[in-house]
Specification:
The structure holds two protein chains of two kinds. Chain A is an all-alpha fold. Chain A is built from 14 helices and two strands; from the N terminus they run H-H-H-H-H-H-H-H-H-H-H-H-H-E-E-H. In chain A, strand 1 and strand 2 form a beta hairpin. In chain A, helix 4 packs across helix 8, helix 4 packs across helix 11 and helix 4 runs antiparallel to helix 13. The chains are: A mainly alpha, B mainly alpha.
Chain lengths: 310, 317
């Protein structure tokens, strides 16, 4: 979807309905002209912002399929294909660079981070919503704020920690460190889900003879599956996004992830393989964007600290 | 986490049958893994960062010998620091001022119904959902010194080239001229944080109760009146939250600058975070790197405090 310039939406004529009089319009004609004008402004604004956001991506995608002779010819119109489009650059990305290694490393790191996050976050979120009483909410916000401690503040001491753990220049360094920001974020996300599950359900299960943990396992977790899925998605997405730790901890290409490997390994000295580079970025951008879109509402509910009840 | 099934004949009582059924035991125990993780990998490193900044530790000599505030004064007196500090504030506050205006506009647009809204929303979210290092690579190509499409568009509009307003060169050289490089970084931060602020504001807009809007309509309040007396006051807390995220993500970011310019030309786009990285990791001076990074801390703590206040206020209201 991100692969094309957004089509300019056709101006829509407002539905022709009898204008409602509130007694405040000067005349129906003026009111109608005002409404048509408002629609026009709406579409113009939407188009402007869509272009502002998406143009770099459109340019990326246009670049991917260009031949060198076309791309690096200053006399060519850069906005069209002067030579036929080609897939060679994508092929080169997969066959001649370490890109596949980066993808595999990213997946390994992401899966491990997701697993660690789930193991820590599920009990923590449950504890804060159900067992901590009136302290739960405050503690939850406190834990969420830890997510805002930036990697740029911690990468130097964490490099030392990683070295002491014997994980210097290993992707497992990221596996160990990344949960330090996925756990705070996802605990808070999951608390929102647990809060929405009525307490009666566990109580009934416990009256039926389950222990507390049994009740959680049999009743709460199955209901909270959408919440668990959200945790998986965002732990995954945050892992894909992280750059600073990855840059600080790993230096050999065999251990790098996408977000670190692409800017450091595919850009060598003065020789830029722009088409392959753009392909490397676009291939990641689109699936991650789709994931975010599906789970956006939960994300925002978490980010607004409950200030907006979704 | 295997379920322990008690015989169904036993009636449930208030008396816990297992140690793990006691809330005072189970609660802290379940919280423990997460808290341990945070203490070990956020709390401890934070303390270590402070220790580093007060010592003379380098990559070559890892022993922490405390030397007092020497690193902070040395950093403060460095000309690059002044530039980095100024740029960090400039990028943060200029981009977030822009975001505040644009996000309000965009949220207003997205709260209306129109054809192609889902596509527009998807496109608008792209800058924020794309891993920032990769988005920065995209911009590096957009702002290329020879093949920039922006330059090409300006040339064909007759604005760039010999005898034109931006001429006489055929290219703007976005990342090679100090002012243009700063402008580029600033706009990329705006571009990147706008989606988040927009969707947060949008959530706030949709949360305005319908009867409030209806009442305003019945009373004949026009667009501007509703904006000033209803939307803005009701959205103020959520707007604060949106801007605070933007501030923290821009203020502490090093990726945009690192990928785009590495702080250049001649440190003219350097920010605290990128300079800390260049000094601490690439230069090997861990102590000074830590000291530079710690200059981020006051603003960060301030943002966190404001965030807490906003959250508490909305909770009680």
């Amino acid at each position: 979807m991100a692969t094309s310039v957004p089509p300019a939406p056709a101006p829509k004529t407002p539905p022709v309905t009898a204008p409602r009089y509130t007694g405040l319009e000067t005349s129906p004609g003026v009111a109608r002209a005002k409404r048509v004008g408002a629609r026009g402004i709406l579409y113009a604004g939407a188009t402007f912002f869509a272009l502002f956001a998406a143009l770099p991506f459109a340019w990326m995608v246009l670049t991917i399929f260009k031949q060198d002779t076309d791309l690096y010819n200053a006399k060519h119109n850069p906005f069209v294909y002067n030579d036929p489009p080609t897939l060679d650059n994508v092929r080169a990305l997969f066959n001649e660079t370490e890109y596949v290694t980066f993808v595999v490393n990213t997946l390994i790191v992401a899966v491990a981070v997701v697993a660690i996050t789930l193991v820590a976050v599920v009990p923590a979120a449950y504890s804060l919503t159900r067992l901590a009483g009136r302290w739960g909410e405050g503690l939850g916000i406190g834990i969420f704020l830890v997510y805002l401690v930036p990697p740029t503040l911690l990468f130097i001491p964490l490099s030392r920690v990683v070295t002491e753990l014997g994980l210097r220049n290993s992707k497992w360094a990221m596996v160990v460190v990344y949960p330090s920001f996925t756990i705070p974020f996802c605990t808070w996300l999951l608390m929102g889900f647990f809060k929405s599950i009525p307490w009666d359900i566990e109580e009934q299960a416990m009256i039926d003879g389950y222990s507390r943990l049994g009740a959680i396992w049999r009743t709460v977790l199955p209901i909270a599956i959408p919440g668990l899925l959200t945790v998986v998605v965002f732990a995954f997405a945050l892992t894909m996004h992280e750059f600073v730790y990855a840059l600080a901890f790993t230096s050999s290409s065999a251990e790098k992830t996408i977000s670190n490997g692409v800017p450091t390994e595919l850009v060598r000295g003065d020789v830029f393989y722009w088409q392959s580079l753009m392909a490397a970025a676009a291939i990641v951008a689109v699936p991650v964007a789709l994931l975010y879109n599906v789970f956006l509402d939960r994300f925002i509910a978490g980010f607004t600290l409950g200030a907006v009840k979704g | 986490m295997t379920a322990t099934v008690a015989p169904p004949s036993v009636p449930a009582t208030r008396q816990p049958r297992y140690l793990l059924d006691r809330e005072g035991v189970l609660g802290p125990l379940m919280l423990l893994p997460a808290v341990l993780y945070i203490v070990a990998l956020v709390g401890f490193p934070l303390v270590l960062a402070i220790l580093y900044s007060l010592s003379d530790v380098t990559v070559g000599d890892q022993s922490i010998d405390l030397i007092g505030f020497g690193n902070f004064t040395a950093v403060w007196d460095n000309g690059t620091f002044q530039k980095a500090l100024r740029n960090t504030f400039l990028f943060t506050f200029a981009s977030q001022a822009l975001v505040l205006v644009l996000a309000n506009l965009l949220a207003l647009i997205l709260s209306a119904d129109f054809h192609g809204k889902r596509l527009v929303r998807f496109l608008i979210l792209l800058p924020w959902t794309t891993p920032i290092a990769l988005a920065a690579i995209g911009w590096l190509w957009m702002l290329d010194s020879v093949y920039s499409p922006i330059d090409a568009a300006l040339r064909s509009a007759g604005l760039l080239g010999p005898d034109t307003p931006f001429g006489p060169l055929r290219n703007m050289l976005w990342l090679s001229k100090p002012d243009l490089a700063r402008l580029s970084v600033l706009l990329i931060h705006t571009w990147r944080t706008l989606p988040l602020a927009t969707v947060i504001l949008l959530a706030g807009l949709t949360a305005i109760p319908q009867d409030v809007k209806d009442a305003a309509n019945v009373d004949g309040a026009g667009f501007w009146r509703q904006l000033i007396y209803i939307r803005i006051p009701l959205l103020l807390p959520i707007m604060t939250v949106a801007v605070l995220y933007g501030v923290i993500f821009t203020f502490t970011d090093m990726t945009v600058v690192y990928v785009l310019t590495r702080g250049g030309p001649i440190d003219n786009t350097q920010v605290l975070a990128s300079w800390a990285f260049l000094k601490g990791v690439e230069g090997g001076d861990l102590a000074q790197g830590a000291a530079i990074a710690l200059f981020l801390f006051p603003v960060m703590a301030g943002v966190a405090a404001l965030m807490l206040r906003t959250a508490r206020r909305t909770e009680t209201s």
